[in-house]
Amino acid sequence: MMNTAWKSESTNEAEADEDDITLARKLQTPVSKQIAQSSVDPRKDLLRERERASFNSRELEVLLAGGVENVKLRKLVAETLTKDRVFKNKTSEKYSLPREELYRTTLEKYLEIPRVAREILAKIHGDNGGGGGGGSGGGATRSRSGNSGDSGNGVNKSNNNKLIAIARVLREFIDEPGGLDLHLGMFIPTIQGQGTDEQKKYWLPKCVNLEIVGTYAQTELGHGTFIRGLETTCTYDVRKKEFIVHSPTLTATKWWPGGLGKTATHAIVMARLFVPSSSSSSSSFASHSEPVFSDKGIHAFVVQIRSTKDHLPLPGVQCGDIGDKMGYNAVDNGFLRFDHVRVPKDAMLMGHSKVLDDGTYVPPPVKKAAYGTMVFVRSDIVMNAALYMKKAVTIALRYNLVRRQSNADSKNNNVETQVLDYQHSQRTLFPILASSFAFHTTSDYMRRMYFEFLKRSQSSEKDFDALPELHATSSGLKAFCSWKTKDAIESCRLTCGGHGYLANAGFGTTFASYAPNVTYEGDNNVLCLQTSRYLLKTMRALQAKLVTEVKLVGQMKYLSESGNTFTSTLGHEVGIRDEDALLRAYEHRAWRLCSQATARAGNLSVDEAMRLDMVSWIKVAKSHCALVVLANFFDGIHEAEKLKVSKETIAVLKRLATLHALCGVEDELGDWVEDGYLEAMQCQLVREEIAQLLQELRPDAAALADSLGLDDYFLNSTLGAGDGNVYENLFAAAQKAPFNSSHKPPGYDHLLWPRFNASSNSNTSNNNKGRSKL
Fold first, then answer.
1. How far is it, in rounded angstroms, from Cα 617 to Cα 615?
2. What tens digit of pLDDT does each residue of 640-682 get?
3. What kind and span of H or E run contains 217?
């Protein structure tokens, strides 16, 4: 109607309007010039910030990536995905699609990983016939037969390893949990870690070729972290040499497994294994007496749940999606129930424990041998903690560098102050930045520990000696790092003001996708108690002078060595930045809290000690993990020094490590003051040194963000783009928003129009054209 009204205006009125516009522009021009003088192009701000750096950000990026080839690979992946037909619409898809479409597009991306990986490998080998821009995939087919004329098993193995490396980067760049996550992250690793050679040979090719899609069904409606309490059963039938999988109660329903809701055809079902007891025999079946079964605890079974022909649930299986969550909705978290479903005997993964044909149970050589898979998953969570902390702090740092707010400089055209020049922003973001480096080195440590354990446990010696500490450390670090990262994402958002709350800023989806980490694969508080159980047992052995029977390896040595020093040398014999003295301080805190909790436990059982003094033991685990993270940060710097990294880069890394250590002290100062380890004067020195470090790191902020090596495609943020063009990005995103596809809001015709036009008349409409009624 408005367009019709405009067209009905007379020529004179139109000419008058044009005169008004000309006059308005003339009057406004000097005012606009005055405003423009105090405006700064954010792109120039970011360029200027990069020029201030005291070190080469490229050198640090290469160091963090593990080599220049890895940096090149990430850039090639980003370039390829930006142009690819399936991947290029990441922004519009991630922030505006309804759940069904988000699920579909995410699944499509996961399924396209092999094609794109082959295209990228072809580019690496110089084969431009790979298709790059996302054609039908014909180039990917060509690359299967070899690249650049290479042939032979050695080359094929090398290419396979490269494809796996590329696929990992592609999965990271998708940056959206999807229905195949547990297939890749739990189903396959569990078969690899707990299956026999025959089971691996049968299942793994099907997994890799996506002939089947698996999930990992452990959590139940009534049980989560307490695995021993799971109620799903697998009962062995000696006569048919089969297992009967059953959900005997409502609370035995599997609940939450990702991919279970819609995607998976198979599941690794974690269930209580029941076998005929030694006093029972097949004769009990012939008679009318009730058979007697023995509970052998939780074991893993591969069970088909849906048909690969029509995707319908198999007989006796009830499954589906549990509904929308707070976030994470590209993942189809599901439920699963069994009604006396029979599976063959080899459905049980028997790489460690076995059930013989006659029902005899053969236990694993080590009671917790199956924990290896959980350790792998938890080490992966630590690695992702580093990644998502890097993502959040990169976005926040870049925005804080180009956003100007208040304190206009009258000597410089009233240009306002960059937000990162405010100390509060520095105190928030720089410690998070430092922690991202600390978690990076810690994730490397965790992976090395895991693969060393894997090598020894699969050797002819079957050496599982490192498993207890590995399990304890991985449990605590999973909790510690995921807690810190979850909180860091929100802290980064808060430093970005109102714009940080926009979906396209990237914080909302990042937080929603990351937050479940503190719950899945073990509730964090319970995992802390797993760490503390090991610490209590170790401390008791030491106090009983069973030192010869206690192998204090890795980060546990402080329990008997230097943790029991009672005063700090910081600010006295040594400077406040002394690495050894900072480590001793963290060791002392961990040792003291553990010693005191052990003393309170007295002769209580480990379970009782944890139950009655739970809050203290959780704190013990946190203090232990804080020490592990700090020690690995310093160790990472020492390794960099051996690699002949420039002194400028080493210097900035040391500032970050020192800031990480000192902020950890200040944030929990009572832990050190409580027993007099730190004096009031030393506390003041800690605060002063933190303020000094913030100033020293300030010129390097942009370069440090760049060194994290996160491409704009991965960041997918209007606030965190590498060119700093924040305001144009925000405005462009608003123009493209689906909600702006029409000027009329939903429901306008029957909700708003009748009210707007209830008492209107044409004179009122015409006389007030183009002017506010206010």
1. 6
2. 999 989 999 999 999 999 999 999 999 999 999 999 999 999 9
3. strand 214-217
- Note whether 379 and 474 are within 8 A (CB): yes
Beta strands in 284-403 (DSSP E): 293-304, 317-321, 334-338, 341-344, 354-355, 361-362
Spot the catalytic one: 521, 579, 639, 666: 521
Q: Which of 5-9, 44-48, 239-243 is least confident? A: 5-9
For 469, 487, 503, 685, the CA distances from 400, given in Å and listed in that order, are: 41, 18, 18, 28
**Global confidence as pTM:** 0.88
Tokens 């405010």 — which residue?
A: 422
Place of tokens 């074991």: 299
Rg (CA), the chain: 31
- The first and second tokens of residue 659, run together, are 């800031």
Give the type of residue at 773.
K
Handedness of CA 245, 246, 251, 257 (dihedral sign): positive
Three-class DSSP category at 47: helix
Under 8 Å between Cβ of 653 and 640: yes
What's residue 144's pLDDT? 33
In the structure encoding, which two tokens stand for residue 463, read together?
Answer: 């050496």
The pLDDT of residue 543 is above 60: yes
Strands 266-276 and 214-217: parallel
- Three-state DSSP class for 319? strand
Catalytic residue flag (residue 13): no
Q: Token pair 């005012």 is at which residue?
A: 31
| Cα dihedral 754/760/764/770 (nearest 10) | 0
